[in-house]
User: Which sequence fits this backbone?
């Protein structure tokens, strides 16, 4: 190339600059010593520079880090690690309301994860990528694939009525994260949440504030912790264009083990005892290889007055379930302009997204292709039903489903995916504007406004002549369309000043938030027949179907103040308070409520002389109280129109029969935490330990009123739930030299949840109930999500009691067999940088807890599991049982499995350990060396991605993390959910 | 510099004077805090209406066209029956009117006498007794007593079925604010039913041309005579039911029903 002449006497070098925690060091200036040849590290800490010769020295400097000189020694690529000034004490963390604070002054736990780390494995949903990378956050992803919802819980479940999920905040402003409907035992589809709309490419960093202590300024919404998302912004300097493209392939893994040698002799249940050799492989072939492609481009730049950032991202995914697709488009534009001698900064941010999901897979019995697929009677010809999933019904002059069984839960899987369409569509706008005014050196005033608006459409159509139980003869239609809108404004006056040995940073502010959710309508025909078959319009809905209008709205106003007093950079005292006014408490006299927080942090390493090895040591403690408003319209609702009406009489009124709750109080959550932060060996090893304990009281409980009371429902404030536990995060550089850097972070956490009391006068009161043999219960004396199932009925000697027909009998009552939540979470994330290569490996472990599979129970009762074939091969199953007074030592497999399996059976054998350890992520990256740093392409890299590759340890016969839903009660329960996937992919990045 | 910018700068300077040049920081903060508080105080006024669901209907709206008392009746009558769970999966199956094509839920269900689902008790108390209590109270308050009479009849229709299934039930003490609410024994209940049917029948008899039920009555279009027939059939049915345990009462009540002019 002709350009080589230009670079003839020069030497080109590239590399990567990271900080002592392995995160990219951005904006570090790289200068050839003794010259004016310079560049700045980019978004991922990468740099390229053309210097006079291979013997030159490079000087790396920035305000944040200690300056470091590195000899090039003719290496084309160098890794550089910088140490933060003063042992890293200048680290700045974005806290509540977007306020930047020095990490050393914080009196509570926080942990940041860089955007690059989140994007490494090309997850479509940014929260899925956080699993294992931050301590104390338990993340469960719905198995419904792209666009599905996520459940994240910090420090245990705290509320009986709420979801106990953290508040998500974008650049200081709360984001709406409403979870749609979730599947249950009978069926349904994950209707997603507010997280899937976010483009992971727009995230600069994420900070997890784990406890209420950190989030008091957000008021009650932050009581379950906060996940703060800081978006990418333009930077002063030449415009940078980034392009990235990922392609990831998904394959189902951890399928149940099936048998294909015993048929059903024309029946539904494959309980033949004469072995045959039947068609197999059709289950594996049913699932496709899912393909997820993400392409994104961003342009960032600016001058010293104005910076701007623009990005566009597209994700198109085809699921492992045939006909399932997901398409997302994201536009983001933000800008920031300084005016009037840089006294006023006006910034704005607009994020637009659209999501379109077709045929997102569900779970449960009804209208689920997997029931028919898995339970298929083995001697039949599956290909026939695959190729002829519909047959013409000449009596009706339309196509009807072709399936051998008329069971309520069975459908031809190909009919289900081809004829029953599910459409979910979300259009969303998040727009904010902020004005910051530097009044003088000490005072600053900021005001912000934000609108978060989403329009959602759910349209599920079930074709005529399908399943006779779940679908009307003319077809069924579920349709919902609504808006979620949140308007947020705040104004904050802050003050910062140093008085001799003391420093003060204080703020006072007010916020107003108006949330109108679910504002729209839904209509569901259920099994009432549409007037004309297969026409899904309002005009075709029968007269006796009610169109529901829905709404859920809250206004919250808050006044808050916070002051941090520091002494000699050694001790910080933090005081905060907030008063809320919530519209949902109107009429109760309790609509205004105040809560305080106090915390202290002491930097021991500043106070005393420490051994050489300790670079930094800090201890902290804080205590806080927050309060939570109650659900909308629960004080004294009106009556509803839409009860039964007659053909001549008018539609009925359903009268409100709830006891008015005019002394309703907000829920209360107290939280205490104690922590220690330490850095050793010149910050090569870091440790962050937190112990926390908290209690939730005044829970808002809905109770059925006693039958004779004249009412049907009443609410009380009662109960006490405690959570305590610890979070440990250790990071360090295992190997660190000029060529090789291996840095590692281990995150561990343990939470102990206890339901101390619910209703003192009614010790048997419980929340949650039996769902077809699976019960996830909250009851005094236990803990959140205790699993109750029916065990075998046994005599005192432990023998299973058989009935007169020799069938095992079921215990009279459901019994607690464990808890569905894991006891201990572990995430071990490693990054190795060697020359141009980087390798990252994430190992995730969950220890303890139970998982439950009704899928396995069904497969057994239908005789299609490998287990039942093995038992038939052996002839009998050994059992320690008693029939009348006669001991029984073996039982016939069909009798045994038909009795215990299916719905509502004896679920004892279907409770498994949740403990599992897996290689969750493996990424191998390569950064290209740019021979010509003045060229068009500044930076290029490619990486190979693997996700959920294999288990290092697992006890359950399936993936126990498989989540059919992300609501609070069906955790750890699987009812014909889509199996989890193993993913492989490739990612390209180019910077211009 | 154009004039616009100059005036803006002036405004900023003025703002700065108000906020900063005044060195009395405490005063300034107080002013801001007071302003915010006043703003908030005035904003909570709409909380009450904001916390009501606009898609629901208030008693005040229902009073228009005298809909308040009649509108719950179609719901009350609908809930006299148990539909899928208590009818189709129980008696209809047991009597052989209906059947299941497959062994439903492993054949362990209501149709095989394993009463897994039973919501009739709650159906009666939640959807008949509780709303009808409101109807009776509102009828007295609004001085439309015949709606209370009608509601009482619907209650007996419903409760007589419940007691047949459950034996003693809460009836005469229904709606009590006491901690302990006593059940009625079956013998007390049937006597009370008969007594109440007497008074219902005489209320109806005195208002045979009453037209206000028409709009709300899916069964008889508000025809009082038809409801009087219902009173008689109910009386006869109750009498037949107790004919083996209290033949004397059964005879009196049965004959009373048969002798009634409207039967």
Assistant:
């Amino acid at each position: 190339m002709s350009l080589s002449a230009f670079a003839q006497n020069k030497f080109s070098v590239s590399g990567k600059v990271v900080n002592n925690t392995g995160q990219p060091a951005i904006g570090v200036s790289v200068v050839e010593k003794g010259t004016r040849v310079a560049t700045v590290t980019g978004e991922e800490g990468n740099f390229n520079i053309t210097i006079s010769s291979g013997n030159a020295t490079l000087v790396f400097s920035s305000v944040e880090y200690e300056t470091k000189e590195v000899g090039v020694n003719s290496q084309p690529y160098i890794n550089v690690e910088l140490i933060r000034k003063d042992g890293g004490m200048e680290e700045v963390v974005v806290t509540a309301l977007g306020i930047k604070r020095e990490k050393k002054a914080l009196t509570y736990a926080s942990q940041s994860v860089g955007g690059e780390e989140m994007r490494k494995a090309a997850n479509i949903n940014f929260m899925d990528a956080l699993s294992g990378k931050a301590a104390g956050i338990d993340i469960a992803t719905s198995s419904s694939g792209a666009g599905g919802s996520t459940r994240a819980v910090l420090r245990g479940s705290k509320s009986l009525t709420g979801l106990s999920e953290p508040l998500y905040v974008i650049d200081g402003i709360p984001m709406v994260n409403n979870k749609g409907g979730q599947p249950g035992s009978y069926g349904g589809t994950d209707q997603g949440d507010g997280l899937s709309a976010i483009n992971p490419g727009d995230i600069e960093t994420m900070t997890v504030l784990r406890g209420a202590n950190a989030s008091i300024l957000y008021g009650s919404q932050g009581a379950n912790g906060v996940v703060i998302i800081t978006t990418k912004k333009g930077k002063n300097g030449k415009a940078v264009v980034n392009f990235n493209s990922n392609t990831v392939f998904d394959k189902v893994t951890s399928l149940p083990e099936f048998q294909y040698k015993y048929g059903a002799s024309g029946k539904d249940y494959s309980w033949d005892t004469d072995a045959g050799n039947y068609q197999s492989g059709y289950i594996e072939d049913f699932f496709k290889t899912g393909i997820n492609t993400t392409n994104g481009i961003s342009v960032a730049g600016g001058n010293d007055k104005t910076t701007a950032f623009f990005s566009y991202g597209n994700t198109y995914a085809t699921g492992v379930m045939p006909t399932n697709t997901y398409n997302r488009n994201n536009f983001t534009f933000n800008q920031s302009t300084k005016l009037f001698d840089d006294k006023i900064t006006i910034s704005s941010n607009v994020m637009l997204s659209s999501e379109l999901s077709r045929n997102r897979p569900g779970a449960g019995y009804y209208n689920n292709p997997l029931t028919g697929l898995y339970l298929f009677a083995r001697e039949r010809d599956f290909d026939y039903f695959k190729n002829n999933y519909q047959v013409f019904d000449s009596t009706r002059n339309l196509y009807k489903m072709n399936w051998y069984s008329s069971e309520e839960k069975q459908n031809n899987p190909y009919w289900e995916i081809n004829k029953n369409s599910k459409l979910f569509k979300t259009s969303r706008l998040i727009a904010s504007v902020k004005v910051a005014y530097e009044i003088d050196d000490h005072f600053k005033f900021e005001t912000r406004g934000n609108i978060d608006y989403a329009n959602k459409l759910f349209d599920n159509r079930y074709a005529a002549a399908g399943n006779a139980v779940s679908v009307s003869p003319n077809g069924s239609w579920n349709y919902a369309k609504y808006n979620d809108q949140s308007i947020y404004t705040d104004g904050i006056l802050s003050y910062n000043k140093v008085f001799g040995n003391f420093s003060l940073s204080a703020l006072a502010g007010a916020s107003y938030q108006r949330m109108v959710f679910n504002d729209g309508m839904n209509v569901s025909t259920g099994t009432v027949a549409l007037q004309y078959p297969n026409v899904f319009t309002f005009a075709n809905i029968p007269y006796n179907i009610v169109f529901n209008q829905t709404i859920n709205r809250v206004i919250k106003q808050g006044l808050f103040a916070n002051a941090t007093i520091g002494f000699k950079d050694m001790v910080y005292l933090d005081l905060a308070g907030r008063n809320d006014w919530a519209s949902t408490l109107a009429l109760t006299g309790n609509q205004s409520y105040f809560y305080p927080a106090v915390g202290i942090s002491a930097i021991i390493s500043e106070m005393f002389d420490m051994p050489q090895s300790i670079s930094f040591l800090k201890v902290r403690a804080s205590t806080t109280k927050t309060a939570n408003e109650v659900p909308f319209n629960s004080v004294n609702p009106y009556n509803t129109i839409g009860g039964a009406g007659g053909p001549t009489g008018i539609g009925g009124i359903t009268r409100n029969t709830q006891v008015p709750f005019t002394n309703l109080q907000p829920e209360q959550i107290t939280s205490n935490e104690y922590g220690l932060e330490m850095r050793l060996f010149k910050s090569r090893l870091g440790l962050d330990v937190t112990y926390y304990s908290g209690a939730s009281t005044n829970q808002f409980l809905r109770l059925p009123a006693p039958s004779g009371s004249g009412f049907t429902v009443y609410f009380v404030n009662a109960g006490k739930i405690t959570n305590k536990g610890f979070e440990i995060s250790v990071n360090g550089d295992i190997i660190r030299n000029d060529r090789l850097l291996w840095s590692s972070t281990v995150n561990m956490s343990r939470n102990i949840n206890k339901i101390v009391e619910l209703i003192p006068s009614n010790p048997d009161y419980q929340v949650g109930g039996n769902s077809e043999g699976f019960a996830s219960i909250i009851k005094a004396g236990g803990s959140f999500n205790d699993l109750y199932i029916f065990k075998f009925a046994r005599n005192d000697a432990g023998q299973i009691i058989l009935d007169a027909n020799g069938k095992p009998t079921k215990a009279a009552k459901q019994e607690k067999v464990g808890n569905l939540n894991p006891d201990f979470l572990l995430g071990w994330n490693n990054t190795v940088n060697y020359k141009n290569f980087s390798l990252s490996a994430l190992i995730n472990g969950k220890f303890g807890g139970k998982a439950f599979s009704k899928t396995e129970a069904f497969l057994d009762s239908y005789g299609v599991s490998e287990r039942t074939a093995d038992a038939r091969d052996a002839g009998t199953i050994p059992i320690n049982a008693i029939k009348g007074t006669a001991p029984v030592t073996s039982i016939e497999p069909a009798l045994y499995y038909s009795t215990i399996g299916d719905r509502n059976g004896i679920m004892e054998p279907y409770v498994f350990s949740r403990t599992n350890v897996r290689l969750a992520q493996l990424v191998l990256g390569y950064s290209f060396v740019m021979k010509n740093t003045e060229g068009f392409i500044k930076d290029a890299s490619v990486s190979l991605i693997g996700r959920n590759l294999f288990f290092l340890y697992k006890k359950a016969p399936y993936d126990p993390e498989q989540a059919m839903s992300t609501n609070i009660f069906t955790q750890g329960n699987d009812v014909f959910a889509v199996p989890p996937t193993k993913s492989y992919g490739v990612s390209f990045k180019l910077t211009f | 510099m154009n004039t616009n910018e100059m005036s803006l700068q002036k405004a900023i300077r003025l703002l700065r004077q108000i906020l900063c040049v005044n060195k009395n920081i405490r005063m300034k903060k107080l002013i801001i805090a007071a302003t915010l508080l006043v703003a908030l105080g005035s904003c909570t006024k709409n909380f009450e209406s904001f916390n009501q669901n606009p898609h629901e209907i208030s008693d005040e709206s229902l009073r228009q066209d005298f809909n308040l008392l009649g509108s719950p009746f179609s719901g009350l009558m609908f809930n006299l029956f148990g539909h899928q769970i208590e009818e189709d999966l129980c008696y209809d199956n047991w009597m052989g009117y209906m059947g299941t094509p497959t062994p439903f839920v492993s054949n362990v269900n209501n149709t095989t006498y394993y009463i897994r689902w039973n919501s009739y008790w709650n159906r009666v108390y939640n959807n008949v007794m509780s709303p009808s209590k409101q109807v009776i109270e509102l009828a007295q308050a609004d001085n439309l007593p015949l709606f209370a009479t009608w509601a009482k009849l619907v209650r007996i229709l419903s409760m007589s079925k419940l007691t047949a299934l459950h034996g003693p039930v809460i009836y005469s003490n229904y709606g009590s604010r006491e901690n302990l609410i006593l059940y009625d024994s079956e013998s007390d209940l049937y006597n009370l039913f008969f007594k109440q049917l007497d008074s219902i029948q005489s209320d109806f008899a005195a208002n045979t041309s009453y037209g206000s039920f028409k709009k709300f009555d899916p069964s008889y279009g508000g025809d009082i005579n038809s409801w009087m027939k219902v009173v008689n059939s109910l009386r006869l049915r109750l009498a037949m039911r107790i004919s083996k345990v209290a033949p004397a009462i059964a005879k009196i009540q049965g004959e009373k029903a048969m002798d009634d002019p409207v039967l």
User: Anything to note?
Assistant: The two ends of chain A are 19 Å apart (CA to CA). The domain at 119-785+820-862+902-991 of chain A is CATH 2.40.170.20 (Maltoporin; Chain A).
